[in-house]
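Contributing new records

If you add data, match the layout below exactly. Sequence lines come first and carry their own label; structure lines follow with theirs. Keep one chain per record. Anything else will be rejected by the validation script.
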Amino acid sequence: MTTDLNTLATALYVKIDDAVKASPDLAPWRPKVGIAPTLSDAELVTPAVMSALLGFVSERRWVRHARAELTGMFPYLPGQSGYGKRLRKASGLVLHMIRVLAADTSLWSDDVWVVDSTPVECGRSRETARRGALAGWAEYGYCASHSRYFWGLRLHLLCTLGGLPVAFALTGAKADEREILLGMVDDDPELMAGHPGQTIIADRGYYGRAFERAVAERDLTLLRPAHKGEPERAGAELFKPLRQTIESINQTLKGQLDLERHGGRTPAGVIARVLARLLALTTAIWHNDKTGQPIKRSLIAYDH
């Protein structure tokens, strides 16, 4: 494990521990009377981030590796079953820490965001699609960017040009991107109150008079490429270089953080694994920002 990853893990552990101490309600519910857990919440979430950065897609293999190589940092880790159960119950804490770390960066004040969705494949066999625990939420969809059909979910991501996640949603593969964007904005009034007049760059899928009127009513400016037959739209010269930004962010989640190899087989399992990867990306950006690194989204120092 690199010194950089060790430093990142220590800083994240302290941040989570301080957050739980300041707001005990962030921790998963536990009975007041009973055996106290040997593993703290910070000692649970920090290894989950490290496993994502190090490329472990199997919880069982990660627990074996951590028990063999990381006993100095984490003297006790439960078995794979207990580790997975506790991590799923800690999804609320992970979600909170994504926002806390994101708001603690210089990128949080950016006045331009990019939005897009990317497939999160959940299975390939017909039996999985028919009888799996994800059936009914996961569904068949089409990814135009890669010209392929898939069975699974979509991760809708609203982020800064530096790759910092601002808001996100995990939906069925056929969900309307426009409705999800408006839902993300409406469900987080605190976010929008702190970022009035934001500009959002999107692709051609985010179109429609009613949609653009709804975006304008929320004090947002939408920039997207023109459809065939439409007049040239404002900011068209920015689309090609900046649209590539969201594609590269998605590639970081997929190529380096193995988003589509999450291994989740239940809704709670998929949510926990996707959140762990989003927290890993946010943590790396936060740590790079605090240590003055020139490329905020680089994971190279932490992936080995």
